[in-house]
Amino acid sequence: MKITREGKRFLLATVLIAVAAVNTGNNLIYLIFSLMLSFILLAVALLRINLKGLSLEVSIDHPVFAGEETHALFTLLNRKRLLPSYSIRVAASGASSPVYCAFIGPKDSLKKEIKITFRKRGVYAYGDFSIQSGFPFILFEKSAKVKVSGEVLVYPALMDVEGVIPDISGREAQGLGKAVGAGQEIHSLREFRYGDDWRNIHWKASAKTSSLMVKEYALTDIRQITIILDNLLPAGEEIFEKTISLAGSLARHFLDAGYFVRVLSCKKVISFGAGDEHFFKVLDILALMQEEDALNCPVSHDNEGYTILLLKSARSPFRKYIASADMVMYADTL
């Protein structure tokens, strides 16, 4: 609980009245002083009662991206059986401003939206919400943290990559020549490679050869993009976040264009897929991806389709994959 500007003025007036009462011994001034003290005590008591029994439920039912303002729906509940609550503000870390709730009746609830901006990607708990009030006399203001269950997954910020992506239409024929695994007719079997879909494993052949064998299907009219993401230490946090954002933006760009997209990184792999469902699968992985401290990354050199290598800088250990890439992009130069 903190004292407001109005409260400071009132306390100063109370002190002056007290001094006057002592100096003059006037009973009327003593009476005024007593009333002012009672007013202060009443303000504190009513403020505590006003915030008592309040709880919050928060939900975000749409994709959330770092750096973009989003709307969170909250339900403010008053669990008091007889007393209402007045002049409540709901605040949250990252919110542009608190949301004002004028009245919540006993055993009643109120639904409103609050605008929030999450600065970084990752998992956020709904634990940074608080309720505030200065009711009834605005002499004091009390803020109370509210325990809210649940969490939200914040996706990396996306950027416009139209200006940095060259025309790769001339490479599509080469990509088509490599495209396997998307048809219906089995063409051949080969050994399992890092990044292959586990659903394509031929278990009978694997048992006979004592090694994992994968079904290759007949070539189909499909375009494929492999994105190799540099997530090795060392590098600054800002450059790594830019690399993550670039990977998500490229995935969106090519998925929107009808490509099948795969993402390879150190200790993480996202198999080929297409459409919105695959896009959010990519974002789920990117939202939680961390930098790794060891070059123990079985990134396949036999990349399928058109390969884009995303490096944090020209000094990255991932530069050894430049020879197998069709295109190299450096996050620190964008």
Spell out the CATH superfamily of the largest domain.
Answer: Immunoglobulins
N-to-C SSE string, H for helix and E for strand: EHHEEEEEEEEEEHEHEEHEEHEE
What's the overall average pLDDT, rounded?
A: 86
Count of individual helical segments: 6
Shape: elongated
Tell me the count of domains. Answer: 3
Largest sheet: 5 strands, antiparallel
Query: Kindly, what is the distance between the CA atoms of the first and last residues, rounded to a whole number of angstroms?
Result: 47 Å
DSSP strand count: 18
Across the major sheet, the strand order is 1-10-9-5-6
| Backbone structural class | alpha+beta
Low-confidence region ranges: 169-182
Task: Lay out the secondary structure.
Layout: E1 2-3, H1 5-24, H2 27-51, E2 54-59, E3 64-65, E4 69-78, E5 85-92, E6 99-104, E7 108-117, E8 122-125, E9 129-133, E10 140-145, E11 151-155, H3 172-178, E12 186-191, H4 203-209, E13 213-217, E14 224-229, H5 237-256, E15 260-265, E16 268-273, H6 275-288, E17 306-311, E18 327-330
Parallel strand pairs: 3-11, 14-15, 14-17, 17-18
Antiparallel strand pairs: 1-10, 2-4, 4-7, 5-6, 5-9, 8-11, 9-10, 12-13, 15-16
Structure at a glance:
The protein has 334 residues and is α+β, with helices and mostly antiparallel strands. The protein has helices at 5-24, 27-51, 172-178, 203-209, 237-256, 275-288; strands spanning 2-3, 54-59, 64-65, 69-78, 85-92, 99-104, 108-117, 122-125, 129-133, 140-145, 151-155, 186-191, 213-217, 224-229, 260-265, 268-273, 306-311, 327-330. Helices cover 28% and strands 31% of the residues.
